[in-house]
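FW: tagging you since you asked about this chain on Friday. Here's the raw sequence from the shared folder, copied in full. Didn't touch anything.
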Amino acid sequence: MRDVDEDTTMVRAKALVKRFGGFEAVQGIDVEVRRGEAFGFLGPNGAGKSSTMRMIACVSPRSDGDLRILGLDPDTDGPRIRARLGVVPQQDNLDTELTVRQNLQVYARYFGLSRAQARAKAAELLEFAQLADRADDEVEPLSGGMKRRLTIARSLVNDPELLLLDEPTTGLDPQARHLLWDRLFRLKAQGVTLIVTTHYMDEAEQLCDRLVVMDGGRIVAEGSPAELISRYSTREVLELRFPPGEEAPLAAVADLAERVEVLPDRLLLYTAAGETALEQVHVRGIRPLSSLVRRSSLEDVFLHLTGRTLVD
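HL: got it, structure written out here
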């Protein structure tokens, strides 16, 4: 009999803690991931994202708190949970001595697929990952984007209900990132629940229905990207850049915005009307090296919550 919780919630954590000796990497967080959504953990390196993902993947036991995955307890039902998960680790761990196709076929056999089923599944996933033309190539010469797509394809051999992706596009060029995003959108459309960790703001905005912002092992904000931006930032941001070594005129512009962030190379003025603020900057005789009016983003949310940029 299926657990009612399993039908509506894929992951539920209450006061979840992970300790490494005296260091508490995850400090009592509450998380709920709903079936069919793309959920994100956003934060800088060391925020506790990967430690949380390893507990959800049933490869690292929790130190304290309650955790249920697919309605099951990972302490007692780890193998049953892992059989229904797909995991894309932060670093590709492909078998470089095998071909692209063999990587998929061999992995499929670990999940009990027959040789015929493994061949069919490999062919299906090669098409999905747009690697059919490289099926019989060795893995090592593949580009970073191709290796990442192959890693994701391999995580799908067991038709997982829940796919965990730890920093899926780190190190990829923009074209490879967008192609990877397209594959993930297709999976979500097929009903696969996604959990993504990232420190890329645009990635979180593109992929996630909901997300939490983590910092220092704690959750400091939760909501959809649009909700977080509305709650913690202004509609627009005026960026004023100044020459290296020149002191930014903070006092002269502080009254033009709801708040001002001082970064090493620029001032960020948070305001509902960026162009109006820029006009006033010029009226006051301030001449920045360059200026830009843009909409607020998740990076601005993170600056507000933690006082530093996301990519540390």
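FW: The chain has a mean pLDDT of 92.
HL: agreed, and The domain at 234-295 is CATH 3.30.70 (Alpha-Beta Plaits).
FW: great, closing this out.
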